[in-house]
Amino acid sequence: MTQTESDTDVTALKDFRNTLLGTLLRPGDEGYDEGREVWNGMIDRRPRLISQCAGAADVASSVHFAREHDLEIAVRGGGHNVAGTAVCDDGFVVDLSEMRAVWIDPDARTARVQGGALWGDVDHETQAHGLATTGGVVSHTGVAGLTLGGGIGWLMRKHGLTVDNLRSVDMVTADGEFLRASDHEHPELFWALRGGGGNFGIVTSFEFALHPVGPAVLAGPVFWTANAAAGVLRFYRDFVRDAPDELGTVVKFGTIPPIPVVPEELHWRPAVAVSTCYAGDIEEGKHVLRPLREYGTPLLDLVSRKPYLAHQSGLDSTVLHGWHYYWKSTDLPELSDDLIDVLIDHAFAAESPRSYAVMFHLGGAVSRVPEDATAYAGRNAPHNININGVWRPDEDFAESDTEWTRKFFEALEPHREGVYVNFLGADDGTHRVREAYGERTYRRLADIKAEYDPDNVFHLNQNIEPTP
Ligand SMILES: Cc1cc2nc3c(=O)[nH]c(=O)nc-3n(C[C@H](O)[C@H](O)[C@H](O)COP(=O)(O)OP(=O)(O)OC[C@H]3O[C@@H](n4cnc5c(N)ncnc54)[C@H](O)[C@@H]3O)c2cc1C
């Protein structure tokens, strides 16, 4: 770089900094190292600039600046994506993590949520009015990335995916322009935003429909020893087949976490758990859950009446920021005996006591929305499984548990059907993005991408390439 160019850059940077209400960070600045950290501690990238936006105006000027200076753009919401797409080497991070406000209209039963909010922020405000919408099962997950990929959670069988509750978004386009998308404004773009991920622009706020939920729900896990897992899964297959929409369940394979509600002698014990949330009348819930709670000999039954808010953060301490995570995921059909055998053969073979697999039960309201109503493509899958290798940075499980994750995933090959885009990892590759959408939906998304982001400015994501 010549002296003149360098002077220009310094002046341009200074001018840009003056346009911002938020903070601009460069290597060496106080806060830079915290600013480049994301949830997955394996990701260690050094952007040239991090623009911690205070509002939509900062987002727009950040996009203008990055494009004028030919800097690669990464977009950060909650920073939870396992592939670490919220941060890049040498480029420009448009960071919305300071934009976490949530406004509730209790009469209209809607929430407007800024693009950097976490699910804990949303639940906190909505539950003050006895309301909620489908969100993630860990409260420190970002609203933006989760919503744009589809959004699965405890309430989905009753109230649909997060995207089924999305009414509109305000966003900044690849040209740095403001735009609102809804069923009435840019409807084709709005279709794409409901599942197509961060490919189409930077969302500065989301508007969601809310529903009466709780504030108390009947919820919690029932644990059985790992040796009983095959029987538990066969029972579970029949139990969820006719389950009411109010009942959300997730099967977790791994060890029992050492959290205060668990007796010490059970800490780290290999176990299968069926976690539950009954989003309806508590007495009815007790009746619905009785057969599950009475199946076999549970090691531990933590189902109880509790605030929905507490349930939504109950898993937070089991997936802490800064640990190392390696994921593989797939959608699954109904649990045949063959599939159960594969699950049992692999689920408990990890070496790290923190590694686990989680299998969500979908169906209900998710499957009643027509497949082409939104860009989310896995509506007919009854389950999806996420195989999570997890270890602390100071532990030596990287090789063994990456291998465990891969082998488990490979063994599921004969049963696999599709994948949830938000569970894709860094090494899954573009073919799996196509797998997530299927050819028809992918082509429609690629056409919309060509209209709204023809230069693929937003490509640090599960990328949809614009139709040439
Ligand atoms: C512990 C854990 C639990 C999870 N549980 C669930 C769950 O219950 N249900 C579920 O559906 N998923 C779940 N996920 C997956 C989650 O949906 C994805 O990790 C998602 O990407 C997180 O969003 P984020 O905003 O935190 O991510 P970030 O890492 O900040 O962003 C990921 C990508 O989203 C895009 N993006 C982020 N913010 C914006 C924005 N404002 N505008 C436009 N694009 C943006 C960008 O492309 C970015 O690269 C979980 C993930 C983790 C780690």
TrEMBL record:
Cofactor: FAD
Keyword flag Oxidoreductase: yes
Key words, A-Z: FAD, Flavoprotein, Oxidoreductase
InterPro entries: BBE, FAD-bd_PCMH, FAD-bd_PCMH-like_sf, FAD-bd_PCMH_sub1, FAD-bd_PCMH_sub2, FAD-linked_Oxidoreductase, Oxid_FAD_bind_N, Oxy_OxRdtase_FAD_BS
Signal peptide: none
Gene3D superfamilies in the cross-refs: 3.30.465.10, 3.40.462.20, Uridine Diphospho-n-acetylenolpyruvylglucosamine Reductase, domain 2 (3.30.43.10)
GO molecular function: FAD binding; oxidoreductase activity
Domain FAD-binding PCMH-type per the UniProt entry, residue ranges: 42-213
Name this protein carries in UniProt: FAD-binding oxidoreductase
Family of this protein: Belongs to the oxygen-dependent FAD-linked oxidoreductase family.
Superkingdom of source: Archaea
